[in-house]
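Lab notebook, bench 4. Still working through the backlog of constructs that have no structural model yet. Next entry is a single chain of 423 residues. Request: give me the structure tokens for it.
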Amino acid sequence: MESIPLSVQSLILVTLLALSGFFSMAETSMMAANRYRLRSAAGQGSRGARLALALLDQTDKLLGIILLCNNLVNAAAATLVSVITIQLFGNEEWVLGVSTLGVTFLILVFSEITPKVIGANHANRLACVVSYPLTGLLKGLYFVVWFVNLFVAGLLGLLRLRDAGSGNQDLSTDELRTMVLESGAFIPPKHRSILVNLFELEDITVEDVMTPRHQIEAVDIAEPMEIIQGHLATCYHTRLPVFDGEMNAVIGVLHVRRLLAHSFENRLSVPDIRELLARPYFIPASTPVYSQLQFFQENRERLGLVVDEYGELLGLLTLEDIIEELIGKFTTGAPDASERLRWGEDGSVIADGSQPLRALNRKLGLNLPVDGPKTLNGLVLEHLQDIPESGLSVRIAGVPIEVMQAEDRRIKTVRIFRPQTGK
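Model written out:
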């Protein structure tokens, strides 16, 4: 070693530190790389991404080749520093101690921390690059890595630690939802909103998205024919539930367009309406929305009547209701009170007590609880456990609510105040 010029030894030392930095950067970038992005790049023809995925599928061998080379390089660098120090300053103990501290500092700064920070910040790009030399080293030193891993496998066996499968990175629904929410500029806001709503379909029931009973546009076949005709002439929907005297006595669903074609040929009568009725389709209130979407598809239905466990009519659900839960309002129909909800200049908004809580949360950016009552009226009544008087104020989930009008054992209108943040 003394025959080698000092300048050459210094150059070798710099090379060893650079190699150590490369292996440190390679280890961090490979472990921090996003496998889903690598799969996407591989699908687009990136050979480096394919090699990176192949290495990640055998993590034990990947880490084996990286750590084997890194430790060999670090040991060689430490030895070379000792040799250079002895040549320059002699072999005093304090000199060797200082040289040890010096090489530790060099390795720490230039071969560990800095390369690993770079590898972590540019993991996906660097993984595709470093996969080429790592694949070549693994093929060339495969026997050595295999021999070392025999002892590693034996030690893991003694500790009763099993390999859970390095390539298995299945994501839960919550993890996928978090990835979508944190996608930033990669997914447009509207698309991101649709995906998040899709994840929530299994957590909500038809009762959460149905049209409540008192808002259902229906035909009472027991009324005079003139009233029925006027109702049909001004209706907003093409399908209307038909009941006989009482809302729970639904006898069928009327397709208004079929009735229109029939009215051109004959004078409209109650028996004619009865003949044109389709059989009503009933849905239990606890049915998940996602399951109901499948049922609509399998049964070729577009409208269902939601009933509780006693068979009482609670509301009406259409295929459009489910689609709008995903992508927002898009159809033209009856005026929707939730579309007019806007915060006023005084930081408040007046809302009907029958407003669904999910619509309020969506339109006003609130976080009112939706796991109990489905309407604002029900939420306030459950919170107070009494029929309130006008002027009473409550705070629910941090939202101040003032009862403006209450009659007939229900709350008709309330004033909602914008929650104060940071309090």
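Notes after review: Residues 6-158 form one domain. The mean pLDDT is 82. Flag for follow-up if needed.
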